[in-house]
Specification:
By secondary structure, the chain is an alpha/beta fold. The chain has 9 helices and 9 strands. The strands form 2 sheets. A 6-stranded parallel beta sheet has the order 3-2-1-7-8-9, sandwiched between helices. The protein binds adenosine-5-diphosphoribose. Adenosine-5-diphosphoribose binds near residues 87 and 173. GO terms for molecular function: hydrolase activity.
Length: about 230
């Protein structure tokens, strides 16, 4: 059976990573246009860098939760029959042991150079504009996909949605496209679709089945029902 799982900020909520659109969410204190667009970066790079530097630093204080663990186990059992796509830029799926993770919105622990295009792993701060290890230009930006930019590896994702027997969405509000449209694509090509989310989302109506509850409970339950 071919399975595509899409995760969003809700899967990391129980690990202590704030979501975006819930009360106390990340966008609460920031207007999205001020930190998550190429225009914002051009206008005030230090504000944008500080926002992501703080989030990168906060990663060391959080750990994967049972939902990440369960998806890691699913990855071990299904191998190439699972495509795990995350909108999250944290590294909790990797730390839980997921064998392969597609970060469609990029990663906090990576940067790319706007001068030479080189991509590098990056664990420290970017706010003081360190030199690019490739070309030495002080032009590294977070390797995250901002509003108005194209998410990574869309071809691979769409191919997997076309082939999927089952599409499962975990902890995402269904507010941001193209990820919000994956359920319709998968369904149009014949997959069964299941949503696991704390509350009904903007996309709930598109799923064959929608279960409400914390990811830390629902995901292990669902994985156990699928692979024992
Ligand atoms: N278990 C399951 N779901 C949860 C939990 C939990 N413990 N806590 C919160 N949720 C749900 C919320 O109810 C909400 O529907 O997770 C969802 C989180 O939604 P958003 O904050 O909008 O996050 P996400 O859907 O990942 O955002 C998509 O928007 O800002 C951009 O690039 C950013 O990748 C992000 C994208």
């Amino acid at each position: 059976m071919k399975v595509v799982v899409l995760t969003g900020a809700g899967i990391s909520a129980e690990s202590g990573v704030p979501t975006f659109r819930d009360a106390d969410g990340l966008w609460e204190g920031h207007r999205v246009e001020d930190v998550a667009t190429p225009e914002a970066y051009e206008a005030a790079p230090s504000v944008v860098q500080a926002f992501y530097d703080a989030r990168r630093a906060a990663l060391s204080a959080v750990d994967p939760n049972p939902a990440h663990d369960a998806l890691a186990r699913l990855g071990e059992v299904l191998g190439d029959d699972l495509l795990l796509v995350t909108q999250n830029i944290d590294d909790l799926h990797e730390r839980a042991g997921s064998p392969s993770v597609l970060h469609m919105h990029g990663e906090l622990l990576a940067a790319w150079c706007t001068a030479c295009g080189r991509r590098v792993r990056w664990a420290g701060a970017l706010g003081d504009q360190p030199p690019c290890p490739g070309c030495a230009a002080p032009a590294l930006r977070p390797d995250v996909v901002w509003f108005g930019e194209v998410p990574y590896e869309m071809d691979r994702i769409v191919d997997a949605l076309v082939e999927a027997d089952l599409f499962v969405s975990v902890g995402t509000s269904g507010a941001v496209y193209p990820a919000a449209g994956f359920v319709q694509q998968a369904r149009a090509y014949g997959a069964r679709t299941l949503e696991l989310n704390l509350q009904p989302s903007e996309g709930s109506r598109w799923f064959h089945e929608s279960r409400q509850g914390p990811a830390g409970l629902l995901v292990p339950e669902w994985v156990a029902s699928l692979v024992g």
